[in-house]
Amino acid sequence: MIGEITEYTMIGKGELHHIPEATEVAPGLYVFRLPDTYRVDNPRRFRIGHHSGNSIADAMRREDAIRGAEIIAPLHNWRQDTNAIRGAFDRRAQHELYVKIGAADCIWPNSERAFCDVSNNGRYTDADIQQAAAEAKDAGLSAFEVLYQMSHTVPWKGLDTNDFNDAHNRIVEAAGAE
Q1: What whole-number distance in Å separates Cα of residue 33 and Cα of residue 38?
Q2: Residue numbers of the chain with a pLDDT score lower than 50
């Protein structure tokens, strides 16, 4: 059912990965967070997947993955099996699909790498807030400088807009930044 949280099984690295919380955004298209142990060097932790378990695209933020799924939803009947979809998308059609989905900052799965473990991108704890606030206070950062630093570092750059704004406000307040 569209919009409901459900279990999902992703096919990745030749094995099945159980995803306890995925959202069906459009018929046959799911958005979910990659498991923490899967491709820890992939900073784009949110994925658009086909009901078959195959991957379509990765996004830095959940809201981008949802928007990407909404963009491609009308392009095909995604309820079909994998072979039917592969048959419908020749090289040119695939290219056009990724150009369209690129407008939502979604890219080919696993095509971006970081040189460290970025599996926590898009998810933070109170300890992360306290650490970032202490660093900002020690460096004498302004609220704008905190914003700039957050937009380029894990876990902050993977947060959806409202979550990012909330984390920024908490860091600025805790650091006494203006």
Answers
A1: 10
A2: none
